[in-house]
Specification:
422 residues; alpha/beta; Aspartate Aminotransferase, domain 1; 7-stranded mixed β-sheet; 4-stranded antiparallel β-sheet; 43% helix; binds 4'-deoxy-4'-aminopyridoxal-5'-phosphate
């Protein structure tokens, strides 16, 4: 029987069992670091993932052999840098299955991508009586830019509520859609709770009302295969640094007709065709949205990160992370005084929790002393914390390099914390 057939029969559990996390781990030099004299247990990849050697080397190679400014030089290095930068754009296009590289805009990250759409798509189009619909589990990056547009244009922000499991209540979401809804902006995966939203059906429902849809994919691209055409999203935003790539680089995907009709967001070099004091004409897509010298080495690192993740196999990584999530969930549920926050049946590799009578920051500090890096706080999703009546949670998040041993270390550190605060 060939491997594909075995996969079909045995499914994700077999894929997860075959996955060699120890080998993957060895690709990430930083994971060999010791923290406070202990081996590092890195459980904060939802904030920023670590980079494999393949990414570090690609960036080093670019910096040591290829760097020059892009697009404007006739000399060899400039042409090589341009080829690297535009080659990386084509890599990103393939990664999300966009139709054309004209639909792939480089940005600093998800935050900048959403602000670009807010200021260049929404602000010129929306006014009094129009509505923007988001969900109650959004990251601040998918709340504040829309509030700014509301202040600027007089349009109204509507919020689809969530339930105690941390899922968007679909009936309420549908009820909030109307002909006034011009834009729907949703996370694909919640960073605070890990909930995976059923965005394909939500996008279809929004489109049925004539609304445009932006998906915040910051937490999705490392864990799920994303095909923007199959999803039907009008805009899709993500950051390189959550995807094993560098900081300061990300992608805004936008449907070409929409991007074409939008005014540039920032003015400067590279986004123009010609400039005179009387009139400036703008460059074509995607350059119209890329004013100034871009993050060239970042684009190279991002492409290497996509190669790396697809080399491991996104589905294989996802199956491994799901196995970790299931084990960790079962173990944490058994710990006394520990409450999981966000219990949706369909989750990505995030576990938010609280420990009775222990502030999450104190918990984070105790775990840090054990070498266990988790995140504590509101996770830039204050409304989610308010909904659950909490000031903060502790959050452990998994990536391709985490192991079952990491879970054991987390559990041991949590038991130690419980003893300290007993
Ligand atoms: N949306 C979500 C769901 C996120 O998790 C994050 C990062 N925490 C962002 C947006 C913002 O991403 P960045 O800081 O890379 O712009």
């Amino acid at each position: 029987m060939n491997t594909a057939a075995t996969d079909n029969l045995a499914g994700p559990r077999a894929a997860a069992a075959r996955y060699d996390a120890a080998r993957v781990r060895a690709d990430f030099p930083i994971l060999a670091t010791r923290v406070h004299g202990r081996p590092l247990t890195y459980l904060d990849s939802a904030a920023s993932a670590q980079r494999p050697l393949a990414v570090l080397r690609a960036v080093e190679q670019y910096e040591t052999r290829t760097h020059a400014n892009v697009h404007r030089g006739v000399h060899a290095l400039s042409q090589a840098a341009t080829a690297a930068y535009e080659g990386a754009r084509e890599r990103a296009r393939r990664f999300i299955n966009a139709r054309s590289v004209r639909e792939v805009i480089y940005v600093r990250g998800t935050t900048e991508a959403i602000n670009l759409v807010a200021q260049s798509w929404a602000r010129p189009r929306l006014g009094i009586g129009d509505e923007i619909l988001i969900s109650a589990l959004e990251h601040h990056a998918n709340i504040v830019p829309w509030q700014m547009v509301c202040e600027q244009t007089g349009c109204t922000l509507k919020v689809a509520p969530i339930d105690r499991r941390g899922e968007v209540i679909q009936e309420e979401f549908l009820k909030l859609l109307s002909r006034r809804t011009r834009l729907v902006a949703l996370a694909h995966v919640s960073n605070a709770l890990g909930t995976v939203l059923p965005i394909q059906q939500m996008i279809a429902a929004a489109h049925a009302h004539g609304a445009c849809v932006l998906i915040d994919g910051a937490q999705a691209v490392p864990h799920l295969r994303v095909d923007v055409q199959a999803l039907g999203a009008d805009f899709y935003a993500f950051s390189g640094h959550k995807l094993y790539g560098p900081t300061g680089i990300g992608v805004l995907y936008g449907r070409e007709e929409l991007l074409d009709a939008m005014p540039p967001w920032q003015g400067g070099g590279d986004m123009i065709l010609s400039v005179s004091f009387e009139k400036t004409t703008y460059n074509e897509l995607p350059f119209k949205f890329e004013a100034g010298t871009p993050n060239i080495s970042g684009s190279v690192g991002l492409a290497a990160a996509m190669d790396y993740l697809e080399g491991l196999g996104i589905e294989a990584v996802a199956a491994h992370e799901q196995a970790l999530l299931q084990r960790a969930t079962a173990e944490l549920e058994r710990l006394p005084d520990l409450t999981l926050v966000g219990t949706a049946p369909h989750k990505a590799a995030v576990l938010s929790f609280t420990m009775k009578d222990v502030h999450p920051h104190d918990l984070g500090t105790i775990l840090d002393a054990e070498g266990v890096a988790i995140r504590t706080g509101h996770h830039c999703a204050m409304p989610v914390m308010t909904f659950f009546g909490l000031p903060a949670t502790a959050r452990a998040s998994f990536a391709c390099y985490n192991t079952f041993e990491d879970i054991e270390r987390l559990l041991a550190a949590l038991r130690r914390a419980r003893a300290v605060f007993a």
